Amino acid sequence: MIKQLLAAVFGVALVVALIVAVFTLNQVRDEREDLTVDLEYRSALLAERLHVGLAPSFVTPTSTTPEVLQALVENLSQQERLEGLVVYDNKDNLLAKSSTLTDNLEAQSELARTAMDKDQAASAFLRFQEKQTYVLALPIRQNARVVGAMVILRNAEHIEAKLDMIWRDNIFRLLLQVLIFSAAIGLIFWFVFYKPVVNLAESVRQVRAGKRTPEQQPEKTPFLFRPLIAEFYKIMRSLSQARFSAQEEARLRLEKIDTPWTAERLREFVKDLLKGREIFVVSNREPYIHTRDGGALRYFVPASGLVTAMQPVMDATGGMWIAHGSGDADREVADKQDKVAVPPDEPKYTLKRIWLTEEEENGYYYGYANEGLWPLCHLAHTRPTFRKEDWEQYRKVNGKFAASILAEIKQIENPLILIHDYHFALLPRLIKNSRPDAQIGIFWHIPWPNAEAFSICPQRKDLLDGLLGADIIGFQTQAHCNNFIDTVSKELESLIDLEQFSITREGHKSYIKPFPISIAFAGTEDAGEEISPAERRQFLSSLGIESQYIGLGVDRLDYIKGIGERLRAVEEFLENNPKYIKNFTFIQIAPPSRDQIPRFREFGEEIKSEVERINKKFGANGWRPIVLLNRHHTHEELKIFYSVANVCLVTSLHDGMNLVAKEFISTRSDEQGVLILSQFAGASRELKEALIVNPYHVEAVGDMIKTALTMNPSEQKKRMKRLRNQIKTNNVYRWSAELLKAIVSLGS
Ligand code: ADQ
After folding, report:
1. Ligand 1, atom 3: nearest CA belongs to which residue?
2. What does the alpha-carbon distance between residue 318 and residue 341 come to, in Å, rounded to a whole number?
3. Could you say which protein family the record assigns here (predicted)?
4. Which pLDDT does position 160 carry in this prediction?
5. What domains does the chain contain, in order, with CATH numbers?
6. Percentage of residues in the chain with pLDDT exceeding 90?
7. Burial of residue 255 (number of CB atoms within 10 Å: 0-12, 13-18, 19+)
């Protein structure tokens, strides 16, 4: 807006300046002419008078001595206040000159000669003795014969001074005009355009946010915008009606269980379920991260299924999300209580940020959570590291989050709290001890290992006790629930009910239930996603790929994802099926993850050198069997990769669920493409129509790539259809609904 205003002011200033310049040039030209004519006229009269005084000195035989002539010249020059007077005889000899003339008189004598030759006055403006000077030469006649010449020099400085003054005055006037015009434009812009547009935008925003219904168009609207505002009010009323109908429809749909879950349906469901109660969500990663990008304040939503799952719930309840403030501009936008209203463009709920010191983040997040619990829960043969100092930080940070939550729920009866993931195993107990009336659920996104594997953890009893402070402990699969029950029975004194799948400890009962997480796919948003063969070719050639067959892997660069095994399976496949050489390319998207941790960094290096090794082995004539892309890709970008792949490989060594498998399926509205899926990913329990593999069995995975690439289109279609139906029915909106229903229905 400011830019447009400045441009308008600049434009007007330019036009005014041009007009003033043309006008001033004219004025200066006229003024110069007038002043010159005046000077010439006065000089001519003066010259006549001087001629009378000087002519007698030329009577021959001369009676005037050079001294007398000199005295006469000095005298006349002073009398008439001349810059100087010079007298020549008709042979160009200088006879006398005023003593004030010190510079070279070449130009003057030239002018005198011209005057004598032509027998008429000659004049010029000259810069002489650093002054603008008017020089007039006149022939001196005796009896109609030219006997000499006199040259008068007159000061002409006043002409330039006058012209300078005209320029100065006009420039001053110009500045004044620009100032007045700018102020006028600014005021007009503000009151006639900006204010009405801002008011209109605010009305539209409020209607869009559902904060008010569009009443009649206000009587007093600026004349200029009247037609536009009338149209806007019509659109707003339609929007409001459409929203009302959508809500009604969603409410009706709640009754029918066979329709897919959508964000709208979830919103309505949650409103109905919670009846005005607010929800408190806790996670390590925040849903909005603010950063400074070269001076500009920006925010982004981190790529995670969690935000998709929770956003409609938060929209509906207007609750609070408590998370670690990790953005470099997070503090700037938070208020004194560390809170910020989000989504930033259309606030619906509160994000409360918890600040962690570097020591806390290193110990709690990188140390205990990611070097301890992550490898402990994933059976991927990376040894967990349990450092005493990390554990202390983990406890401290869980305590810090607990204190913050307890302060927020102080005034709320039966507060509803949903905690996410392995970063907060101690939190349910810390809250429950202070607030037994709180309804607490925790969802463990990663696998729960078997009891024996878990038993190596020195802090296992504290972790289990911490988790058992929750009313509901959710896992991705039934197998993880079973492992958890076994672990508790082995480690803690408690009462286990296998009918209800509950654990009672010190009088408090926790239910253990599977809630397989999913993605937003509702099966209605897929129209138009298909990619034509020409677009596919063009996209691939932009990556330097000419192959006909494409394999794809999309993972964080994490040792649990089985990327190394997958690359060796590709190697095996090419070795056994040489006709695919130059005809098949495997694209691996793997941006670095948690690379402050040495094992994660080393893993990145291992993958890079594996790719180099295999590419060296098979690569020829510009073709490489593996293309490794290690920058972060947005979900939109990933969709294109999913669409062009003939086969997608998800070969995790162990994985809670794996959303990449589901995202690949949701993108394939063409019902083509094959998913190869690890039996150790939670997703394999639901996605039965995928080609299920043991990722450690590299040869078998290699053979499965061949099976996938040779699968006929009708078989692909049959499998993909079933896979898509499975995700459509069990999408993330349903996941949120089931989880909340379970927590709420238990009571405290
Ligand atoms: P993650 O281990 O991070 O999550 P996953 O479920 O595969 O694994 O992916 C999460 C999201 O990150 C997906 O939306 C995916 O698109 C995105 N993603 C993954 N790799 C990416 C890449 N290379 N570039 C861009 N985006 C990428 C943890 C558990 C999982 C569990 C989820 C959700 O480890 O088992 O499924 O939480 O509960």
Report:
1. 556
2. 10
3. Belongs to the glycosyltransferase 20 family.
4. 84
5. 2-161 (3.30.450.20), 264-519 (3.40.50.2000), 525-730 (3.40.50.2000)
6. 55
7. exposed
